[in-house]
Amino acid sequence: MIAANKTDKVVPFRELLKTVIAVKVGPARTEFIIHKELACHHSPFFKAACMGNFKESVKKVILMENEELEIFKFLVQWLYKNSLTSEDEKWGFSSWGTLIRLYVLADKLGILLLKNEIINECVNKKYTPTILDKKMPCAGFGFSDPAIQFLVDHTLPKDPLAQFIADFAGNDVSQKHIEEEGNQLPKEILVLALASAVWFRSAWHKL
C-alpha cells in the first residue's frame, strides 16, 4: 500500500486552522477559501505554492483552472473531515468515475493518505452485489468504462489503483473473458490483468 506523507503526523486540528488562502478552480475560477496550514499539512503541492518563491505565496491565491469543480469540492470535504464517509451527509461516491477522478487529483497534489483511503474504498466496494453482474466486471467497472482510461492517462505506469483493478480482473474474471473483452481496456491495464490471471491460476493449482 502507499506510504503516508511525511507531513501526515498527528497535529492538533486547531493548529491547522490559523490562516486562509483562496483557491480558484475550473475555467470559471470558482473560489474556495480553505485553511493554508491544513492544505499544506496534507499536500506538498499546496506547501510549495504557499511557502515557496511563487507568486501564489505572495497573493495567497492559487489558480487550478484545469481541475474539475465537483471533484475539488470532494477534496475540500475530505480535508476537513479526513474521511471519505460521513454519517450526516451523502458523499456521492456511488460513481466509480468520481472516486477515480478524486484519486487522480490526490495524486497530482501528492496527498498519499487520500490515495490510500480511495484504494481501500475500492477494495470494500468490490464486494458489493453490483459486481456480481457479469455485465459489470472488473471491480464495479465495465471494461469500456472511460474512468479506467482516465486513470491510466493521468497516473504513472503500474499505479497502485490501476494494479488493483487489474488484479481484481485477473482474479475474479475468467481469462477467456479478459481475452474476449479486454480490447476495451487500456493496454496497460490489460497487460497487468492477464499477468494477474496467470499468477492467480498458477497459485490456485498449487494449493
The fraction of residues assigned to DSSP E strands is 5-15%
Overall pLDDT score: 75
**Fraction of residues in H or I helices:** 40-55%
* Number of DSSP-assigned strands: 3
Question: In terms of topology, how is this protein built?
Answer:
Blueprint: E1 20-25, E2 30-35, H1 36-42, H2 44-51, H3 55-59, E3 61-64, H4 69-81, H5 96-109, H6 112-125, H7 146-154, H8 160-172, H9 175-181, H10 187-206
Parallel strand pairs: 1-3
Antiparallel strand pairs: 1-2
Features:
single chain; 207 residues; mainly alpha; three-stranded mixed beta sheet; elongated
Can you tell me about this structure?
- The two termini are 26 Å apart.
- It is built from 10 helices and 3 strands.
- It has a 3-stranded mixed sheet with strand order 2-1-3.
- 31% of the residues are buried.
- It is mainly alpha-helical.
Short description:
The chain is mainly α and 207 residues long.
